[in-house]
## 1
Amino acid sequence: MLHTSCLRSAVRSGACARGALAQRYVLRLYSSAVAGTPLSVPITLPNGTTYTQPTGLFIDGDFVPSADNRTTEVADPSTELPIARVFKAGAADVERAVAAAKRAFESSWATADPEVRAKCLFRLADLVEQHADTLAAIESMDNGKSLECSRGDVALVSKYLRSCGGWADKLYGNVIDTGKEHFAYSVREPLGVCGQIIPWNFPLLMWSWKIGPALVTGNTVVLKPAETTPLSALYAAQLCKEAGVPAGVVNIVPGSGRVIGEALCKHPDVKKIAFTGSTATGRTIMKNAADTVKKVTLELGGKSPNIVFADADLDKAVRSIAHGIFYNSGEVCCAGSRVYIQDSVYDEVLEKFRQYTAGIKVGNPFDPDTFQGAQTSQKQLDKILDYVKRGEEEGARVVIGGKRRGAKGYFVEPTIFADVREDMQIVKDEIFGPIVTVSKFSTVDDVVHKANDSQYGLAAGIHTKDVNKAVAVSRRLKAGTIWINTYNAFHQSVPFGGFGQSGIGREMGAAALENYTQVKSVRMAIDAPEF
Amino acid sequence: MFTVRSALLKSSASRVGRLQLRCFSHLPLNVPVKLPNGLEYEQPTGLFINNKFVPSKQHKTFEVINPSTEEEICHVYEGREDDVEAAVEAADVAFNNNSWATIDPLDRGKALWRLADLIEKDKEIVASIESLDNGKAIMNARIDVQLVINYLKASAGYADKLDGRLINTGASHFNYTKREPLGICGQIIPWNFPLLMWAWKIAPAIITGNTVILKTAESTPLSALYVSQFIPQAGIPPGVINIVSGFGKIVGEALTQHPKIKKIAFTGSTATGKHIYQSAAAGLKKVTLELGGKSPNIVFADANIPGAVQNVITGIFFNSGEVCCAGSRVYVEESIYDEFVQELKVAAENVKVGNPFDEATFQGAQTSQMQLEKILSYVDIGKKEGATLITGGERLGNKGYFIRPTIFGDVKEDMRIVKEEIFGPVITITKFKTLDEVVKMANDSEYGLAAGIHTSNISSAIKVADRVKAGTVWVNTYNDFHHSVPFGGFNASGLGREMGSEAIDNYTQTKAVRAKLD
């Protein structure tokens, strides 16, 4: 493995060879090498348009350099070329950001009329919509996902923010009848400063899932985007300002999980941590947050089953399972990575699936025909290819794919493993790439047993024309989201989150508001009036 | 230009004043109007059907009068049965053939939010039109318009939050409910809050996927027509909102009897409400009614007296007393009665009555000649019944429908001025000794729209709030509307609630789906 010390040398332009696979690592440099890094840079997108990318940390309503002037390079995973340098926050910057968020919370944000928050979120949704082309292009450039996927993300971002805006004045408490001697009611209050840590697979969408419900309920946030994909969150931060979100309400601190994530988890003024990412990191975060008894919501990993019954519309089911795993290059926590096909149609469906997969266009995210773009990082590429090797060693059969595509950019062929056993690592572990395993089952009991035999419980897919089967199986599956005759079908009103080790709490829908409010109960004794 | 056909619309001509003219004409679809504050604007005059202003089929028009000057503002087209038919057809196509009810709910939300934004950008003109047409003080009109904007935006947020429920009845069945729109809604609004009532009606209806035909009051059609011009720009499709200016006997009747209209929402008098309820019953239309009131406003001896005086003043003289929930029966605890009445008299005499466009004016004109006459006749009745006129009781000036703030003392609970809704700046004051006594007097009414309680004792406040029969109870405040807080009546004051999540219930029907599983 390469170490940071190696990278602190003069390696600037990209090639830092480690055998056949190693091409690019995110460089971490002291900005002394690039003294005077500007707070914004012009970037020309692969589609030819040029925009201004903010590069500073967004603290208290302004873009600012990090306290120690450190920067980090952001690279394009499709080309492995650098895009820009952005400032990299350190612990001192977290202090500044938390202080700003605390001031904002204690000033008028939490206590202003709900309409104020509604208006900000509606405007923000409008601005995201107005900037949709730029945001989608940034997302494709920074994350590597196809433009088709990015556009879907951005559309959902604006819908979700708008939907959140509508909740501002609908956070009802209850009046609780406890008899005429008392008057009792409950109110829902915000928590305070929320630390939010988001992943690199849906940079802007996760940004909206975090800040939308936090803001509308009156909280303020310090959000850390993923180190590899900070660009869209910074771009959107300026839209927050334009939308009228007061200074300090949203703070964005790009940086490493180890430094920024940990500082947020341990900071006594941060009242809540929301994290989306791996289960391993989720555990660490929960432990770190425990000392100050912070409220925690976690959206973690998954190894979601996608079940095809013999009575399903098989062509539709094949499209759905392909979409379930190859959408967003398989970098989806709820990816349908374990496909279960009923034995009587196993060979037929597998062959249809192979054919469909062969037709998937992988490559340049900006090509309008591309469905599957690049994996987001060298590390991810390596991990995926490593799992392919392990699968082969375990005796699984590669039906299609299994290789890197091209020599530049982190592209992986859509890969199907068949003839797997349930105890294989490729069936047990989350791979987070375009790799799917296919197993055979015979009965409902059999498939329910297999589907539930996982530490995870994020999502599950069921394909059948029989409504009885669909409902009966959905009742028995242990997963936070069940898709029937569809997959990866997110909607801003439908809650999303995990059973088991896939997480705590729900995002989107009314359920997301629970994560950001706490109930205050008021019970008052009523005396008999004196007359 | 105009051919006068029937000059006398309402004949109660003991006092000769302005009566509304009705004509045939070829009125332009926009006329310039110059407002008393110097602003100028183009007033649409047509009916608003299918996102277009159109002349009425019979080309009839009626005159709109400025109640502060008794001068004509302009004419607008008068809708009749055939225009209602055209509007129903438009609303039917919008509901059934086009996608308003079935599009992504967020698109409905977005369109309604845009409409609110467009009104907000133009809010000074809109408030001015309201003062011009209704006679209310500009400061009141501005409050109305702000509440309109807030309410439209709050409603917009409900678009995607109309959840049904999943009902678990065991493994053998699968049950869920959905909330679906009703269809075409006929809406009939009054003249005291022309634009606010427009907002209370159209917002919950269209956000839930219904389409509407709204009849404005014949004395105050201007603001609804003015804001309708923003509807296409906001992205609301043709036929979703249709405005038919006209008269209750013709347009209101046509709406309540039309077989394609599934729901009637009405705000106005209890007498008209009963008639509408009966008419709608023939077609079993769903009905919501916001009707009259004679709301008690109770002052305990331990209240903050200056605050209570102010709230009683706001409770009755706000909007010239033309408020269905006006606190028109004031009950004052015996030990502070004399002191309170004295302070109230001074405060009432200090209420600035006059030109609505004067920034200092609190109470503008009554909205019509008919209303002016009705109020003054109640003053006569009160005097004859033996009540003591403490202050006011007369018209102010002889041009424009202004009335001095009026207080009657020494009333008995069975007097007509205590029992009947006057709908003007007139209050009665009654003395009480105990909580039980005042609750009994407060509840001794056919109405039950609102009640006010003024006390520093939280126990008294909550006990009275629990016992008083009214849809809204204000504690240490009055006429204090909020778009999230439901409003509506007990008893003869109405059916259903407006604003808040309750308003949504008026415009949706539940569909329960129960599937048996094998």
Note: The interface with chain A takes residues 106, 109-110, 113, 150, 153-154, 156-161, 163, 171, 174, 433-435, 457-460, 462-463, 466, 483-484, 501, 515, 517-518 of chain B (CB under 8 Å).
## 2
Amino acid sequence: MADEAPFQFLHSEVIQYVFGASDSGDAETGRNITKVESMGFRVGQGLIERLTKETSRFKDELDVMKFICKDFWTCLFKKQIDNLRTNHQGIYVLQDSKFQLLSHLSAGKQYLDQAPKYLAFTCGLVRGALSNLGVKSIVTAEVSIMPACKFQVMIQKI
Amino acid sequence: WGREQGRGSQGRQMERNSELFTLTYGALVTQLCKDYENDEEVNKQLDKMGYNIGVRLIEDFLARSSIGRCQDFRETADVIAKVAFKMYLGVTPSVTNWSPAGDEFSLILENNPLVDFVELPDNHNTLVYSNLLCGVLRGALEMVQMAVDVKFVQDTLRGDNVTEIRMKFIKRIEENLPAGDE
Amino acid sequence: WRVGIAVIAKENYPLYIRSVASQSELKFHYTVHTSLDVVEEKISAVGKSLGDQRELYLGLLYPTEDYKVYGYVTNSKVKFVIVVDSSNTSLRDNEIRSMFRKLHNSFTDVMCNPFHNPGDPIQSKAFDGIVSGMMVQTG
């Protein structure tokens, strides 16, 4: 069964719908990124609720992050995060060396500008999942070499 | 990684990946409900987005299934139900209610994965929640030179026992003409 | 009341409250509210004691002469509280457990309903149905 295809097609179409065909200004782009991110946020909230239904309670923040890297990522993309680093002061860097939602973009430099559009939803997924587990954060993503991608999670201390 | 619990079997992973799709679709529908004033506009937009997906999906489908050109509408109906739905949504609708002329049939879904968890609020009584599917079918078939009309006639979200998608063959599109204008 | 069920948000406000009242509704609210302190205590004890199972089911929170209060907490820090009459001795621990599990499953579906805003009171026919079933079963 081509079970990852429906999501990929839908995700592309959502990007297409929100960003439109034309190149808009920076302010507009920012608003659109926020829109896609917040859709991801809501999906992340729901998914993590299902995913943690059978698991025992988390010990601490690191325990939660490991779950995101392993179980949550596998649920989303059928693979785990390849590398998790932390400065032990609330910053975590999650690296996916072959990020599924970028793999269809070509490696050319001109496509690098397009990458943020394709990362916003996933940033939202992670932020939504963490938020629902009681961890407030800011999640950003960057691409250096396609299709490798780093997600940075900054925990917001209350 | 120290955590032992929560590792799904293969089957459960499959189900989970479809949950990502189902929930993302839900987020899209609710976003459209915010973006547009009324349900009719949302239905239209869902159909349009489905169409865009359909015209791209068909290539993926033909590549994966290695199915050749269908001889007639009946064969097309079987391929849609038994191969396409199964492949992408993991369900196999039944093909029934053929019109005497053989140009219309229904796809009956006992279980529509798009609406798992969905409870429609009262203020959306004309929303066709799964309307994306109509667009997908229309778009995909257009790329194989078939113009069809697709609509929901029953919906479990509305309290019907099953979900029924009605498909009507309109015409064969000449290959040398540009298909569609959307 | 003979039985009452409450769902409490992470921030400790009620998302859902229902009781079969034989006494005042207010007293039920009060009981639930009091139980939250015990829940917090149990949650924050995580990791402090050896051999801690970190189960979602928190067990009997406290008994009084009139009723028993049971608690359960999801990983999203939403709390479920079930209050039953002390005279109801037919309910066993594993039955309470399975009631919580049913509530949790149904709550998860509510969280996945795209029209539900997480943090809003639960308005769901499916969830109502599950709760009603429990009221009949235990009442």
Note: The mean pLDDT of chain C is 86.
## 3
Amino acid sequence: MSEVSMVVNGRKVSGNVEDRTLLVHFLREHLGLTGTHVGCDTSQCGACVVQMDGKAVKSCSILAAQASGSEILTIEGLAATVDADLHPVQAAFREHHGLQCGFCTPGMIMAATDMIRRHPEGLDEQTVRAELEGNICRCTGYHNIVKAILAASEAMRGSAQQPKETVAA
Amino acid sequence: MYQTNYHRASSVADALKLLEDAEDGKFVSGGMTLIPAMKTRLAAPSDLIDLRHIPELKGISVEGRKVTIRAATTHAEVATSREIAAVCPALCYLASHIGDPHVRHMGTIGGSVANNDPAADYPSAMLALGATIITNSREIPANEFFTGLFETALEDGEMITAISFNAPEKAGYEKFPNPASRYAMTGVFVAKNGGDVRVAVTGAGADGVFRASELEAALAANFSPAALEGKTISADGLMSDIHASAEYRANLVVVMAKRAVARANG
């Protein structure tokens, strides 16, 4: 067993977990944060994407113990980073109908916010499609997801709603 | 996955001691291969020694044309390194096409090189660049390092701490990724230094990464895709699996080599 502690969505949390516990299971089962999904469990689908110390990672392929000491952002904490009901990426997914069943959506949105952060110069369709290779959607055909990300990227460049800098725990 | 014991190492010396004390321990860095392998029970180490928090294993330095990348440097860090891009942009391009963005935030060059997956991208670059694999105890030339499928010259208890190479005049990488896994079904890294041209192939060889000497000779005489027109390589010793036959891969080697040369020539 390991004692792990980390900051999740701005809140300091800790727990005793088996060393083999995956980060996604710690989030879902120990913290009740079930917005982060387990899709394929083979690191291909991206439904489990969260941000660790400001970078998108696949929480099904990281041990909770590896993540101990880090700062984790999940879909549940995203809107609070901009003090709004919905983060601009969430709002764009709603506006552009970037989801159908919704299973992949949390991972898509956490990947999209990371993608926008890494491309402050802006995004084009080809870049968005290439950058989405780690996230699988079986409903939408990606078209509206791509539209939503492009719209969110524009909205975030044009407004003051830039995410706050994350502060290391 | 099976139960395992997690240890976080604070230094190389600490990591080596933890490994020595473990019954059947393994180093884990990004874990992008090892953790999935443990989930499918292809690997079941009794202990995991985490190298991700060791300061001496991190960082990139470029002095003149000599590039040194410490082992726990992530693919994302190599992909976005302006210092490396200034002397060997082909390596940044290669790193930016490993896995997906999330994997690149975790996976490391040391982990990829140590694992020597026959379809991994980095081994081809190491071989074509004539890189040196630096461990806690010695320096190993790339052409002696990769010894077979998932096999390397590393001894038990030996750890890669960095890799280094002299940036060539020109280099290029192209791969044909498996549409699902994104692993290279065939990837070719070419490097040119004067009349010395090296063509290293990943994803295709039944024994892992190898140099295509027939293509090297043609490119040494004329470093252009046209020099490879009509060239073929033997399918003997190439991988055949559900994704592609050996013959298909043999053809891909030439096609990817042409594209890599075109990219190297800019």
Note: Chain B has a mean pLDDT of 97.
